[in-house]
Write a structure and sequence with these properties.
Chain A has about 180 residues and is mainly alpha-helical. In chain A, about 55% of the residues lie in helices and about 10% in strands. In chain A, β2 and β3 form a beta hairpin. The longest helix of chain A has 25 residues. Chain B is about 75% helix and about 0% strand. Chain B has nine helices and no strands. The radius of gyration of chain B is 18 Å and the shape is globular. The N and C termini of chain B lie far apart (about 50 Å). In chain C, β5 and β6 form a beta hairpin. The longest helix of chain C has 21 residues. The chains are: A mainly alpha (about 180), B mainly alpha (about 180), C alpha+beta (about 160). Chains A and C meet through α6, β1, β2 and β3 of A and α1, α2, β6, β7 and β8 of C. β3 of chain A pairs parallel with β8 of chain C.
């Protein structure tokens, strides 16, 4: 059964360019023998190639070497300003081949820096390892909060509300139960 | 004894400007053609082609011989041309005028003046149509049509897989046929 | 001149994919934390007293923290651990007819926000919201128990 024109035309360009494997190429050839539509398509592809080549060759043939080389030579010997050299350096350095490696390198670096705290505790960006209390409601009881950074201790202490007791004392009164 | 291309490259890597001039003489027209195909503007193409050779000379020490010198040179030129195209867009009228100027600069007609005139007209429309493609699509169609490079080589130059080259070519040709219609 | 076997440009797509792999998992972990099993909450119930000088060996890692409270003796009564889903409540029974209700609320900047309620029966004694570092802890103390006071060490960790 003959392959569909749509399938053949998908591969026609590659066949014209000599890039198809022999088996696929043979199928295309067979189809072209029987299909004037695809044969016309093949002709159009070849025409595009040859016309483009001819027009560009026609222009290039008029380009003498001497002035061309003069332009290249002038660039080589010219003293470029440091700004231009810096911009050129960035352009050359950050072309896609190098950017390919820059992308994961930057990401790894950022992850490393942000994860520093995990591996070297205390080396974070000012982030403390101390628990922080956002709210306390003692429901009528006195509550004291103690935070000690050296030992990373946060303590919420409950006091029974007795008269005369120093409510600001963080240390508990051992003899008096809180409840 | 005649020097091989490898010898010339090695001499260039040692700073020999004369060796680089020889290499340039060998490849300048082909580089110019490819760049012109992408930019469709003679002066810009000249500028970019010269810049490509300048950059090739500046970075020739980094050339390791993994590809041919010409492929490596082409890669620099194509990247510059695509980059240039992206940064500066020119309108179609200006491009057509440039093309017409170039056409008048050509020499005598051949044996079939009618056919040649028709081809020149088609060539102009074709280049205008190519100008409507993205720089990436232009690059592959120019490299294939003008240089006859394999998909693998084209992929190395523009930095994509062979499959991508194939699909870009297919797309570009389809677009050109749509624009040119019965002209082809 | 040694040939390169691969063109760097051809490595752009896989390298970008690799970069995504570096970036996405932490993002996915963070984003999925609310849908994953949640937070491992551990409650250590400690009795502190001044009877003698003692430190339960199981509390040796907490020695410096407990010294801040300035009792002489610390014994670990029990330790309970539960995996608690985000925004879900977990109830921990504690001695003396009391209980601790813990709700992990959110995870931000490597800190877990916990809502904690100490109950006596059904009566709330204290409500607090604490941002504790992942794998960190804080203490709630003061309830009388068997001649001493109870101290609860509440710690939380995400997987």
């Amino acid at each position: 059964m003959m392959e569909s024109c749509a399938n053949i035309q998908e591969r026609l360009g590659a066949w014209v360019d000599g890039e198809l494997d022999p088996v696929a190429g043979e199928r295309v050839e067979l189809h072209l023998k029987q299909c004037p539509l695809c044969l016309g398509e093949k002709g159009r592809i070849e025409r595009i190639n040859s016309t483009l080549k001819n027009t560009l060759e026609a222009e290039a043939v008029n380009v003498p070497f001497a002035p061309f080389w003069a332009g290249v030579h002038a660039r080589i010997v010219e003293e470029r300003s440091w700004q231009v050299r810096v911009v050129d350096w960035f352009r050359l350095t950050l072309t896609p081949p190098r950017l390919v490696w820059a992308i994961p390198a930057v990401i790894l670096l950022l992850l490393g820096v942000l994860s520093l705290e995990r591996f070297v505790p205390g080396l974070g960006f000012g982030q403390t390892n101390l628990a922080s209390v956002e709210s306390i409601d003692g429901h009528g009881m006195n509550v004291a909060l103690l935070r000690e950074s050296q030992t990373k201790t946060t303590v919420i202490w409950l006091f029974e509300d007795h008269e005369g007791e120093n409510e600001n004392t963080p240390e508990p009164a051992p003899a008096d139960p809180a409840f | 004894m005649e020097l091989t291309e490898g010898d010339l490259v090695r001499k260039c890597q040692n700073g020999d400007l004369g060796a680089f001039e020889e290499l340039s003489a060998k490849y300048y027209r082909r580089v110019f053609m490819a760049v012109l195909g992408v930019l469709n503007h003679r002066d810009d193409a000249m500028d970019v082609a010269q810049e490509a050779f300048y950059r090739a000379f500046k970075s020739i020490k980094r050339f390791e011989g993994g590809s041919s010198f010409y492929t490596w040179l082409y890669r620099i030129a194509m990247n510059l041309a695509i980059d240039f195209q992206r940064r500066r867009k020119r309108n179609a009228t200006e491009l057509t005028e440039n093309f017409d100027d170039a056409m008048f600069a050509q020499g005598e007609m051949g044996s079939d003046p009618y056919r040649e005139a028709r081809d020149r007209e088609l060539g102009g429309r074709l280049r205008a149509a190519i100008d409507g493609l993205t720089p990436d699509h232009k690059a592959v169609i120019v490299l294939r049509a003008v240089e006859g490079l394999s998909y693998k080589e084209i992929g190395r130059i523009v930095g994509c897989s062979e499959g991508t080259v194939m699909s870009r070519l297919h797309y570009a040709r389809k677009k050109l046929q749509e624009k040119l219609g019965s002209d082809l | 001149m040694r040939a390169k076997t691969k063109t760097p440009l051809n490595l752009l797509p896989p390298t970008l994919l690799f970069s995504l792999w570096l970036v996405l998992p932490p993002g996915i972990v963070r984003a999925a934390e609310k849908s994953q099993p949640g937070v491992q909450v551990k409650i250590g119930t400690i009795v502190a007293s001044n009877e003698a000088d003692c430190l339960d060996p199981l509390l040796s890692k907490m020695k410096q923290q407990l010294e801040v409270i300035k009792y002489r003796c610390y014994r670990l009564l029990r330790e309970d651990s539960q995996r608690v889903s985000w925004l879900a409540n977990a109830l921990f029974e504690i001695p003396g007819g009391r209980s601790l209700l813990v709700m992990p609320q959110e995870y931000r900047n490597n800190r877990i926000s916990l809502k904690v309620r100490l109950l006596e029966g059904e009566k709330p004694l204290v409500d607090t919201t604490v941002r504790v570092p992942n794998r960190g802890n804080f203490l709630i103390g003061g309830s009388a128990h068997e001649g001493g006071v109870l101290i609860f060490s509440i710690s939380a960790a995400t997987p």
